[in-house]
Predict the 3D structure of the following.
Amino acid sequence: MRITRSVAGRRLRAGYVATTGLTVTALLLTGCGGSSDSDKGADADGNITLTVADFGQFGYKEAGLFEKYHELNPKITVKEDTTAEEKNYYPKLLQQLNSGSGLADVQGIEVGRIKEIVDTKADSFADLSKTIGVDEWVSWKAKQATAPSGAVIGAGTDIGPMSLCYNRELFEKAGLPTDRAEVAKLTEGGWEDFLALGEQYKKKAPEGTYFMDSASAMFNAVVSSSPEQYYDASGKPIYEKSASVEKGWKLAAEAASKKLTQGLAQFEDQWQAALRKSTVATVVCPAWMAGQISTYAGDANKGKWDITSAPGNTSANWGGSFLAVPKSGKNVAEATKLVKWLTAPEQQAAVFKAIGVFPSNQSAYDLPDVKNATLPYFNDAPIGQIYADGAKSIPEAVLGPKDGVIKDSISTQINNMEQRGTSPDDAWDAAVRTIDKAIG
């Protein structure tokens, strides 16, 4: 499940991603014109207001895309209705789908929910397969939103290719290399190498610091780098027998027992304080995580952090969303045009430049604002290259309708191992009880 994107937490500072700028002309060239006769929501003058409901921070406001769309289409005005927490947004979306009322013209859907929507509510959404250019997306992204009928009910917005963020200053004090290529080499064998590096760090660690923030984050990275996760292809939950879950759990238990982790619940107040006080040396880093670190570590820590490739030779995806068009809307044709435009390469590159979320549209990867992107806060790390390389090695994973529930339940018990000293066996049993009760 994608980590909830809080509006403040995901926001990057202006100019955070250093790139060659997209011109307004480039954005305008990808626009679409005029309203459609098939839309019933126009006023007497032909003006249409399109509503977009989403959660957290999709970046359209920060990139100025709704204003640009209005410039292209003077009779179209776009209004965004944002819910800060996805966990509050999704129950409301389900309620609206069940009642058939209250839906926006465009609805955001988080990757941890897309399977459930595809399985149970696909008929409620317009088929975008002939509209959005499915082949432009990374293949597994498009398949996530594809119903058995072949209908594609969501256009991909962003993905979360994995990297590793590390505190160069703490690495140096612990006698470890700080060059991103050298760090990558030390963990090229995978997450086992990562823990071995953690033991090296611990030997000379500055007092009061820890190698990693959270073992549950590492667990998610391990599982997400495998095609087999919590469900099999038939839709049966297999989390108790999944090799990736077993591996991730053992590594998390090892990290907890060896005190390599500070045992923090990510995004909570204590986690934010740890970044500010520089008490953690590494954070598992899907593309959007850099914004969290820079926000909470603050200006005082600018330049102290860096980014390198994730451990191992297979990357992972953590996060991502979709834009879908409910069939019940009064402006289906125009809403579909808007979705196509928002998820086109130029607009995804503009969002990446504005807030740092990485495009799912592969055609964006060669645009200057992606290809040449660096992060000044992270010692000018070449994130365009790092994330694009990671995206290429992400396996096609089987998603299940309750992936989010399973991940959250396991993460809670990993935190209990870290914070309360719960034994791995007791923690696992507690996770299984919670999951089985939730998924039936």
